[in-house]
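Weekend entry, working from home. Most of the wet-lab plans are on hold until the incubator is repaired, so I used the time to fold the two sequences that have been sitting in the queue since the last round of cloning. Logging both here for the record. First:
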Amino acid sequence: MTNIALALHGGAGTILKKSITPEQEHSYLEAMQGALDIGYKILEKGKSSLDAVEAVVTFLEDCPLFNAGKGAVFTAAGTHEMDASIMEGKNLQAGAVSAISGIKNPIKLTRLVMEKSGHVFLSGKGAEEFAREMGCNFEDASYFYDEFRYKQWQRLKNTDQFQLDHSSNIDEKFGTVGAVALDQYGNLAAATSTGGMTNKRFGRIGDSPMIGAGNYANNLTCAVSCTGSGEFFIRGVVAYDVSCLMEYKNLSLAAACKEVIQHRLPKIGGDGGLVAVDSQGNTSLSFNTEGMYRGHRNSQGKNQVYIYA
């Protein structure tokens, strides 16, 4: 059988079984399984890993359970500023956007940046202008409004505080979304999308749109999508660090992910996790928090979604 594999995440953090109702748990598991099924069918049809991760993240952006697209958190100004990136491992092509508003699916825009713009990273109004030229779907503010997210913001509004989506053990909806895949041609891809921090100011940008920090793919090694305390993932260049350990120290995917997430990241104060897949189709769902919304599926019969540690 052709070797294909897919993994996804929907955020990592203080995710405790006691704080999630059975109905909420079912909703998250069902959403993740639905996303896995969509991406895996694309791989089964012989389409690219890039197509698969774009479709998975698009599905998760459209699901209000997660902090991306429709479920994005509120900024200090009461708006939504979204970040995303995509990368393919064959030629190391990548596209990224940050601080964009109104675009229904930021991940679709990142692929257009990669394939149509001649650039890697676009931001703010310029990225939105490019999106209009490319015919991307825009939505008004009401599409992105979510009552839970609004109440989450109200607790921090008019303060200097901000909140990572995964940093509270009260009944929260989490987090950044991402996917990684290996297609039947041996090509890897990764995609990541987020709404960032609640009550964020000053155009804050996390690791999700930064190639090498929150997202990376290289056919020689692996594809990685991260979620967690973005400032620390940036400083640790986490996604690329996993790839480096595989390429230059010959670590396995599992060993490289463990070294970065369980040892290197905590040393500088970071928490969170990642999903990764290597060129042989091995997957790793590594995190140093109480839980991470995650799942993986491959041609060896693995097909599971999880929440808790």
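Second, folded right after the first finished:
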Amino acid sequence: MRTPVVMTLGMVLAPCGLLLTLTSTLTPGWRLVKGFLDQPLDLVLYQGLWDMCREQSSRERQCGQRDHLGYFAAEPVRVARGLTVTSLAVTGLGLLLATLGVRCWRDEPHFALAGLSGVVLFTAGLLNLIPVSWYNHFLADRTVLPAQASPVTVQVGYSLVLGYLGSCLLLLGGFSLALSFAPWCAEHCDSCRKAPPSSARRSSISTVYIDGPEPALTPAIKYYSDGQHRPRPDQLGAASQRKAGFPMPRPPPRAYSNPVDVLDGEKAPNSEPSGSSLSTRPCGSALPCDSDL
């Protein structure tokens, strides 16, 4: 049996989503801050969930910058830390279930386990999408996510974009794997329909049997079926001794008639006296004459 397309698609999208969400969580590129008055014009400050880096076009990136404004203490950052780590753990669990459910070394996949892994991966995508969307919502709000006043500008970083893409891939991969529940549900429902009921259902209409004399029926229709007379069930033992039924009319006897006129030609054309000899009497018929008999 070939691996279903939904399982193959889920097994491709889910690891890609895991890779993108992991990169988004660890890299310090959720927000870009630039335009400092007392700093070089090409200075860019990259802010993430765990680190803050400083980069110039003519120098290398310097990470581990001090947080003077309390950026890491902001509520969106703290919530994003917890939810992204939880999302990574749930994603790992979902991939483990998917590996056990999708057929790799068996003849047929385990549809129920593959569908469960899809639900877990879909949940992981939601857990990562919530902090990313919330952080993006307060990206330019300097009261929630502290930043220097204008003319300093804030922009979306690459880590936030990777977080969105990873969440979408996890959602799509989880939904694709969750479609594996369809064959399992169909097989389970068919087995439930074919299974015999545990207890016979009591009929809503009660049947009452009354013992009494059998009503007299017309002999013409009494115990007569298929054109043959059959005795009553209680008379099966005495059927050879006693017969019941009605006499069938018999046709009258038919008399035999010969279509050939045997007397034809016995008399001669000229009548002769009664005393004449019968041997000279011609017979015009091929049959023997009565006089010869």
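Plan for Monday: verify the second prediction. The longest strand covers residues 31-34.
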